[in-house]
């Protein structure tokens, strides 16, 4: 091979390669000088932590303490779940032995509407006759159960409104958890929202709200999501209350999740 001839023909290429190699060696030396110390220190710190973890030992007492704490946390979770979960009255829960859930829904709505309308008329309470129920009866078992729970709450609040001498329940709207139609689902807590617009004296509406949060003996607490109270238009001395109650369904955690 004629080196002189090769040099003449590829002089520019050889110079570029040589310059690139020199620049690489310079950069490598600069990086090593400035960063290698920090890298080595970080590696030593990581190795030290690994050694500490290997040296940690737990006694049977530590295990017993951790198990007791886990049991206490699971018990607290159970109490909080029970307190948050809405407990419908038996007459609002379909009995499979008595027929389909759809028939139970129709019968229950008819009964509640008839009884509440009669009581409201006697008490001069204006009542939204829909009771927040959909125009078309639900057919899915899941929706039937949710609407029956909402009807249970509506009847209970209407009963308190009659006792508190409220003037009217002008609008009732029930909204199921939008998570049912979402890809992510409803999550650990499912929420059915029952929105009501009521009118009456400030004393009557305040009494109603107090009873929903600190109920009379045998009553239930109805959690409130949103609340707005203001003077009613063109009705001196009257107040308009817009309140949204929440019916919560707390999903049971898997044993592995609770233990984690």
Plain-language structure description:
This protein is an alpha+beta fold and 260 residues long. The protein has 2 domains: 1-46; 86-255, 2-Layer Sandwich (Alpha-Beta Plaits), CATH 3.30.70. The chain is built from 6 helices and 5 strands, in the order αααβαββαββα. The protein has helices at residues 3-55, 60-84, 101-122, 141-164, 202-213, 255-259; strands spanning 126-127, 168-175, 189-200, 224-231, 239-250. The protein has a 5-stranded mixed beta sheet. A hairpin with a 7-residue loop joins β4 (224-231) and β5. α3 (101-122) runs parallel beside α4. The termini are far apart. Mean pLDDT is 83; it is low at 256-260.
Note the topology.
Layout: H1 3-55, H2 60-84, H3 101-122, E1 126-127, H4 141-164, E2 168-175, E3 189-200, H5 202-213, E4 224-231, E5 239-250, H6 255-259
Helix pairs in contact: 3-4, 4-5
Features:
five-stranded mixed β-sheet; elongated; 5 strands; 2 domains; 260 residues
> Major β-sheet, in short?
5 strands, mixed
DSSP E strands, number? 5
Annotated CATH topology of the largest domain: Alpha-Beta Plaits
As an assembly, this protein is single chain
Q: What is the radius of gyration?
A: 35 Å
Task: List the domain count as a whole number.
Answer: 2
Tell me what portion of residues adopts beta-strand conformation: 15-25%
Helix and strand composition category? alpha+beta
Measured between the Cα atoms of the first and last residue, the distance is: 73 Å
Looking at CATH, the homologous superfamily of the largest domain is Ribosomal protein S6/Translation elongation factor EF1B
Strand order of the largest sheet: 1-2-3-5-4
In round numbers, the mean pLDDT is 83
Summed up, the helix count is: 6
């Amino acid at each position: 091979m004629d080196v002189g001839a090769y040099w003449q023909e590829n002089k520019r290429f050889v110079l570029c390669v040589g310059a690139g190699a020199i620049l690489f060696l310079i950069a490598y030396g600069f990086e090593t000088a400035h960063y290698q110390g920090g890298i080595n220190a970080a590696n030593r710190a990581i190795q030290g932590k690994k050694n500490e973890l290997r040296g940690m030992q737990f006694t049977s007492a530590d295990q017993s303490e951790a198990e007791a704490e886990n049991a206490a946390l699971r018990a607290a979770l159970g109490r909080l779940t029970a307190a948050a979960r809405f407990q419908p009255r038996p007459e609002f829960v379909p009995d499979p032995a008595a027929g389909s859930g759809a028939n139970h829904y129709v019968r229950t709505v008819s009964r509640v509407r008839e009884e509440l309308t009669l009581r409201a008329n006697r008490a001069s309470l204006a009542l939204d006759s829909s009771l927040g129920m959909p125009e078309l009866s639900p057919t899915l078992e899941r929706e039937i159960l949710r609407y029956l729970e909402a009807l249970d709450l509506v009847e209970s609040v209407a009963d308190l409104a009659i006792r508190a001498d409220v003037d009217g329940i002008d609008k009732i709207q029930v909204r199921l958890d939008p998570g049912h139609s979402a890809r992510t689902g409803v999550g650990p807590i499912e929420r059915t929202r029952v929105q009501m617009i009521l009118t009456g004296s400030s004393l009557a509406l305040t009494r109603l709200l107090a009873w929903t949060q600190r109920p009379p003996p045998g009553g239930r607490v109805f959690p409130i999501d949103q609340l707005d109270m203001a003077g009613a238009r063109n009705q001196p001395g009257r107040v308009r209350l817009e309140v949204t109650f929440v019916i919560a369904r707390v999903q049971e955690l898997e044993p592995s999740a609770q233990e984690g």
